[in-house]
TrEMBL record:
This is Xanthine phosphoribosyltransferase. It catalyses: XMP + diphosphate = xanthine + 5-phospho-alpha-D-ribose 1-diphosphate. GO terms for molecular function: xanthine phosphoribosyltransferase activity. Xanthine binds at L20, N27, K155. Pathway: Purine metabolism; XMP biosynthesis via salvage pathway; XMP from xanthine: step 1/1. It is found in: Cytoplasm. Its main location: cytoplasm. It comes from Algoriella xinjiangensis. The lineage of its organism: Bacteria, Pseudomonadati, Bacteroidota, Flavobacteriia, Flavobacteriales. Its EC number is 2.4.2.22. PANTHER family: HYPOXANTHINE/GUANINE PHOSPHORIBOSYLTRANSFERASE, XANTHINE PHOSPHORIBOSYLTRANSFERASE.
């Protein structure tokens, strides 16, 4: 997606250690016009599927996911990163965070995700695939059908895509970043 590549080159900040900061338009301050274009691109790429629900994970997946849900007029369920005391019937698993270097609980209510659901998962980044595989675990526990996963930015030098493909998951990334270094950002062709 050319518009997104241009914006990453203009406003993204890359760091040694393979971290890309996009907090002026995705992760902290958000650009709703860009987010709308991102959602339309996801809708186009998944247009062959019969989806009835969008799944994402808090917090940064919520904005793109709700824009996709708006365009498709479908409900959006976000996986929570802490188990609410007031909710029973929660499905739970654990995820290791690459950026925070710690493991955390993720959960979703069986009320909002079950065997009647055909879902796509939308998130901001695909790095090592831990968040995505954690969500897949919850989707499997719920008995729902996972039709594909969409990421705004994939870091193709990390192993996420291969791990998801190994699980036979369809992966759609709007841009694929090949190299990140101090002030260096290169995309896959
Ligand atoms: P994974 O679980 O695939 O290793 O990492 C995905 C999650 O980590 C994403 O949801 C995102 O929040 C965060 N993440 C991974 N790499 C980056 C990065 O380079 N920049 C930012 N802003 N977040 C990242």
């Amino acid at each position: 997606m050319e518009l997104l590549k241009e914006r990453i080159l203009k406003d993204g900040k890359s760091f040694d250690g393979g971290i890309l900061k996009v907090d002026s338009f995705i992760n902290h301050q958000m650009d709703p016009i860009l987010m709308k274009a991102i959602a339309s691109e996801f809708v186009k790429r998944f247009s062959d599927l019969n989806i009835n629900k969008i799944v994402t994970i808090e917090a940064s997946g919520i904005a793109p996911a709700i824009m996709v849900g708006l365009e498709l007029e479908l409900p959006v369920v976000f996986v929570k990163k802490a188990k609410p005391k007031t909710m029973s019937d929660m499905l739970a698993t654990q995820v290791y965070s690459f950026t925070k270097d710690r493991t955390y609980d993720v959960c979703v209510s069986n009320k909002f995700l079950n065997e009647n659901d055909n879902v796509i998962f939308i998130d901001d980044f695909l790095a090592n695939g831990n968040a995505a595989l954690g969500v897949k675990n919850l989707i499997d526990q719920a008995g729902a059908n996972l039709l594909g996963m969409g990421f705004i930015i994939e870091k193709s030098f990390q192993e996420g895509r291969d791990r998801l493909l190994n699980e036979n998951i369809r992966v759609e990334s709007l841009v694929r970043v090949k190299t990140l270094g101090n002030d260096l950002i290169k995309f896959e062709e």
